[in-house]
Amino acid sequence: MGAGRFKSLLVAGFSAFSILFSGVLKAQEKPQKKGFEKHQAFDANEVIFGHVLDAHEYHFLSYKSSDGRVHHISIPLPVILYSPQRGFDAFFSSRFNHGEQIYQGYKLAGNKIVPVNTSGLIDSTVRVFDISLTRNAVQMILALSLLVFLLIRIAGKYKSGTGTTRAPTGFQNLMEPVITFVRDEVAVPNLGTKYRNYLPYLLTVFFFILINTLFGLVPGSANVTGNIAFTMVLGLISFAVITVNGNRHYWGHIINPPVPGPIKPIMILVEFIGVFTKPFALIIRLFANMVAGHIIIICLVSLIFIFGELNKGVGWGFSPVSIAFAVFIYLIEILVAFIQAFIFTNLTAVFIGQAIEDLHSQSGNGHEDAVIV
Asked: What pLDDT does residue 129 have?
């Protein structure tokens, strides 16, 4: 809770700082004299959104050589396009040269590929469907592959007797306490005797969120869990599990809530809206926390360059402070990765438990005391 409040305070502080100093940076720009090259100021928005949003490459850094040319260190990804007018096209994103070149009638405008005509202008008569392997998609595939590999390998050890007839070994030692924790602290308290039916799904959600979040902390990688499409799909899957498994008591409480007649229409509307607010809370909670953490780290690093635009001495002097705070938030983000995976999994278990609980067993499961804020 304290870490969350600290992050919220930092976000508010840096938002105010950006608003105040954006005008200062613009005021520092001097009229451009003829014959002199204009100095390009540091664009914090481009850096922040370039990291948070999806892209067609893994970009690590850029540097300028002695001849003035800008060089980029990145890993290009496959671009797959379909246009009803032009057909299929497949090539690597390096063909665009980081947005400086046009290839096969397409160009890169920010993070989006758009069709262009022979003059290099956007051709609005051409429709394009981008089904490329972007860095978010590639990273999810890598995370899923790693998850499947680890769990299959651990399951193989249990089948061979390691962990049952004899002590667990290797990575199994690390995974077993986590799996036991999810079972004993998430599944059993919320689902009761039916926990075995939903434990595989809860474990999959927990480890999938955790691995993708930890991958996102690697410099140059994608912030997959900070993508609203990623959290939306997870929320919709949980919504489907909750809705399909809801019993007669669950739906009866929504359609005919046990309240006095005059306020029954209002409660029916409230209960019906609550069916959709549960997955919405899962979606927004994970998305907001993951985006906030990455933005704070990038803002802290960006402050070095923002102060450097005002005065190089101030920029160099502030850099140790900025880096120290960035490392501190980075360490907090590692903890937040586990916390958010736990919260998403726990809330999913709570919502499923509310949908499957039996009217006659409420006193034993403790669901009547559960309050979701």
From this structure: 92
pTM: 0.77
Task: Average the pLDDT over each of 146-150, 311-315, 317-321 and give the range with the smallest value.
Answer: 311-315
- Do 169 and 162 touch, CB atoms closer than 8 A? yes
Position 48 pLDDT exceeds 50: yes
Compute CA distances 329 → 2, 4, 50, 304, whole Å.
13, 11, 20, 16
Query: What is the C-alpha to C-alpha distance for residues 337 and 53, in angstroms, rounded to an integer?
Result: 19
Write the pLDDT tens digit of every residue in 159-177: 888 877 887 777 788 888 8
**Using CA atoms, how far apart are residues 329 and 75, in angstroms rounded to an integer?**
27
DSSP state of 372: -
Instruction: List alpha helices for the chain, DSSP H.
Output: 2-28, 44-52, 135-159, 171-181, 188-191, 195-216, 228-245, 248-255, 264-310, 312-356, 362-365
Q: Which two tokens stand for residue 101?
A: 């070149």
- The 10 Å Cβ neighbour count of residue 329 is 21
Q: Which two tokens stand for residue 104?
A: 């096969």
Task: Name the DSSP class of 67.
Answer: T
Q: Mind listing the pLDDT tens digit for each residue in 58-116? A: 888 777 777 777 777 888 889 999 999 888 999 998 888 877 888 888 988 877 888 98
Q: What is the amino acid identity at position 195?
A: Y
- Tell whether the torsion through CA atoms of 156, 143, 180 and 349 is positive or negative: negative
Tens of pLDDT along 329-361? 888 888 989 999 999 999 999 999 988 887 555
Region of residue 120 (left: phi > 0; alpha: psi -120 to 50; beta: else): left
**Residue 160 DSSP one-character state:** T
Q: Where are the domains of the chain?
A: 71-133, 135-369
Q: How far apart are CA 150 and CA 335, in angstroms?
A: 21
Instruction: Give the tokens for residue 358.
Output: 């039996």
Distance CA 277, CA 280 (A): 5
Tokens standing for residue 372: 């979701």
Radius of gyration of the chain (CA): 26
User: Could you tell me which residues come within 8 angstroms of residue 280 by beta carbon, excluding any fewer than 6 positions away?
Assistant: 235
* Structure tokens that stand for 220 in this block: 């140059």
